[in-house]
Write a structure and sequence with these properties.
- This is L-rhamnose isomerase/sugar isomerase.
- One of its GO terms (molecular function) is L-rhamnose isomerase activity.
- Keywords: Isomerase, Manganese, Metal-binding.
- By secondary structure, this protein is an alpha/beta fold.
- The chain has a single domain (about 15-315, about 360-375), classed as Divalent-metal-dependent TIM barrel enzymes (TIM Barrel, Alpha-Beta Barrel).
- About 45% of the residues lie in helices and about 10% in strands.
- An eight-stranded parallel sheet has the order 1-2-3-4-6-8-9-10. A two-stranded antiparallel ribbon has the order 5-7.
- Helix 4 (about 110-130) packs parallel to helix 5 (about 155-170) and helix 7 packs parallel to helix 8.
- Bound molecules: alpha-D-psicofuranose and manganese (II) ion (2 copies).
- One manganese (II) ion (MN) binds near residues 140, 180, 215 and 242.
């Protein structure tokens, strides 16, 4: 455990990364959805698979649900099922993008009947949060327009604010609303919440329990995401992360796979801004596994976040401050790069073993027989979601 000090390990021990239920369902592109043997047939089976990830990593104690993909008749039963498997139900994601009524908008729609329906869907999501014990309602909106002149962008911002006010007013206790932004898709000319600034403006007008959700895959190429992380932390408005990685658009690939250095830089700013293991900043994955196995895909993902967090914790802050103050450009850069280039994997494996976990969670899962078991047991049907 040479590289990781006891102080660093005690920070890592508290790390928690929420898994998305939809990562366990079949998904794909508009060209083809490839089915994986053993894919869950209902939310109960998705949670069972998520619990496997936690079992081998101790990193993923909760699972986010998506409504109506994860609609069940009894949420108390689902909650108990999760708790029996050692995990909790987490963020509730609303869905206003798969209903014909929302073709031209939902929370921004000029038709009051449709806007009411979209608001009511969110109120129903909060009812579910009451039953599941979830803290966060996450809203991602697909709305916008495709052609200049198609819509009154300004009026849509006003209606969005009014809709969010009504939803926010229904939250109780510790419950929060997190508003996600995305720069394009499925709308291509304008998107109603395209960037962190718009999300910030909308949630700041609501109140303290409304925050911004930053999905790492939702930025234009070349965007300095760690700057946005810094700014939102500085403003006290970074509510959550949706981690994933991208080469081109909203690829939803395994976090840290496309650009581990970017993940390291983001986590360095999270630590700098006091956002690591902070109750205010939820770490979540938002990924789909189109061609790889889903459970090991999620295990790999949480390990990637853990490894880059460990490297970011290795940054020698004091030395960095001194180099920055001295305007020693190359020394400051070298201090950051020294941490980034440190291979923490052997130390993490050793630490895992010392806590009674498998040194290699990927290998332990593969050897467990779970994959073969679910492939044999789960015959017929896949759960609705991105791939449906
Ligand atoms: C669509 O872009 C999206 O990937 C958003 O990132 C949401 O968080 C996710 O779907 C689930 O609704
Ligand atoms: Mn997302
Ligand atoms: Mn996305």
């Amino acid at each position: 455990m040479s590289t990781l000090t006891p102080d660093i390990l005690s920070v890592l021990e508290k790390q928690a990364i929420e898994l998305p239920s939809w990562a366990f369902g079949n998904s794909g592109t508009r060209f083809k959805v490839f089915a994986t043997p053993g894919t869950p047939r209902d939310p109960f089976e998705k949670i069972a698979d998520a619990a496997q990830v936690h079992r081998y990593t101790a990193l993923a104690p909760s699972v986010a649900l998506h409504i109506p993909w994860d609609k069940v008749s009894d949420y108390a039963e689902l909650r108990k099922h999760a708790e029996d498997l050692g995990v909790a139900l987490g963020t509730i994601n609303s869905n206003t993008f798969q209903d014909d009524d929302y073709k031209f908008g939902a929370l921004t729609h000029h038709d009051e009947t449709i806007r009411r329906k979209a608001i009511d869907h969110h109120l129903e999501c909060i009812d579910i949060m009451d039953a599941t014990g979830s803290r966060d309602l996450k809203i991602w909106l697909a709305e916008g327009s495709n052609y200049p002149g198609q819509n009154d962008m300004r009026a849509r911002q006003d209606r969005l604010q009014d809709s969010l006010q009504q939803i926010y007013a229904r939250l109780t206790g510790e419950q929060r609303l997190v508003l996600e932004y995305k720069f394009f898709e499925p709308s291509f000319y304008h998107t109603d919440v395209p960037d962190w600034g718009t999300s910030y403006v909308q949630v700041a007008a609501l109140g303290e329990r409304a925050m911004v959700c930053l999905d790492t895959g939702h930025h234009a190429p070349g965007t300095n995401i760690e700057f946005i992380v810094m700014q939102l932390l500085r403003l006290g408005k970074l509510g959550s992360f949706d981690f994933n990685s991208r080469f081109y658009a909203d690829d939803d690939l395994i976090v840290g796979a496309a650009d581990p250095f970017q993940l390291f830089r983001i986590l360095t700013e999270v630590i700098r801004g006091g956002g690591l293991n902070s109750p205010d900043v939820a770490f979540m994955l938002d990924q789909c596994h189109n061609i790889e196995d889903k459970i090991p895909g999620q295990i790999r993902s949480v390990l990637n976040v853990q490894e880059m967090t460990a490297r970011a914790l290795l940054v020698d802050r004091e030395a960095l401050d001194a180099a920055q103050t001295a305007n020693d450009v190359l020394a400051a850069n070298a201090i950051l790069m020294d941490a980034f280039y440190t291979d923490v994997r052997p130390a993490l494996a050793e630490w895992r073993e010392s806590r009674g976990l498998a040194a290699d969670p990927m290998a332990a899962y593969a050897a467990s027989g779970y994959r073969e078991q679910i492939a044999a047991d789960r015959v017929g049907g896949t759960q609705a979601g991105w791939g449906a």
